[in-house]
């Protein structure tokens, strides 16, 4: 969580404080869809081929700590501190190719996502996807989920000066939509994404698809959901329109 000049964390905003709510920003991986198992499989298999970790497969705890929600440049440095950037980038490109080959058969929307998207459209809210994923991954996932026409903007972390956990991608999304942080909510599933949304001055709804709820709260999430069917979400959304 970002700190104010006095060293204290900023107060967490609630959704009703946004009234009237005018825009919604979504992360993609783990937020629109439960894609982490596909990413985990791709990393595990390719790292095994390398003999990484003395041939012991990575586990989910390792994946959450070192990989989930992070930008590929940071993942490369964490996994391969002794490799040059080109070699790490080649490995990560191969991993993304494998991921994209698996997505069409395995990608599933988070429960209640399309209900939420319909509600957003019906209320005329602006909306954008904001991700640390490579653009080809992001566009493919959005397409498979049937949301290509839903999103009015797609912001990719690698195309900003700094990716998440910095606020730059979310600030760019606000600018592209012509929206204010005072009337916009963020949906995120990772610590780095939540930190980015909070640093950009918005309340963040943490979607606990895979990451521990306590880590999402510690990062600054204002509300924690298992999925978009949670009645608490709908109560807060309705209050945010008043």
Explain how this protein is built:
With 242 residues, the protein is of the alpha/beta class. The protein has 2 domains: 15-34 and 108-240, Rossmann fold (3-Layer(aba) Sandwich), CATH 3.40.50.1000; 36-106. It is 45% helix and 10% strand. The protein has 10 helices and 6 strands. A 6-stranded parallel beta sheet has the order 3-2-1-4-5-6, with helices on both faces. Helix 8 links the parallel strand 4 (184-188) and strand 5 (204-207). Helix 1 crosses helix 4 (85-106) and helix 8 (191-199) runs parallel beside helix 9. The two termini are 28 Å apart. Residues 1-9 have low confidence and may be disordered. It is an enzyme of class 2 (transferase). Keywords: Carbohydrate metabolism, Magnesium, Metal-binding, Transferase. One of its GO terms (molecular function) is riboflavin kinase activity.
Question: How do the strands and helices of this protein lay out in sequence?
Answer:
Elements: E1 23-26, H1 36-50, H2 60-66, H3 72-79, H4 85-106, H5 113-122, E2 126-131, H6 135-144, E3 154-156, H7 168-177, E4 184-188, H8 191-199, E5 204-207, H9 213-219, E6 223-225, H10 231-240
Parallel strand pairs: 1-2, 1-4, 2-3, 4-5, 5-6
Enzyme class: transferase
GO molecular function, one term: metal ion binding
Protein name: Imidazoleglycerol-phosphate dehydratase
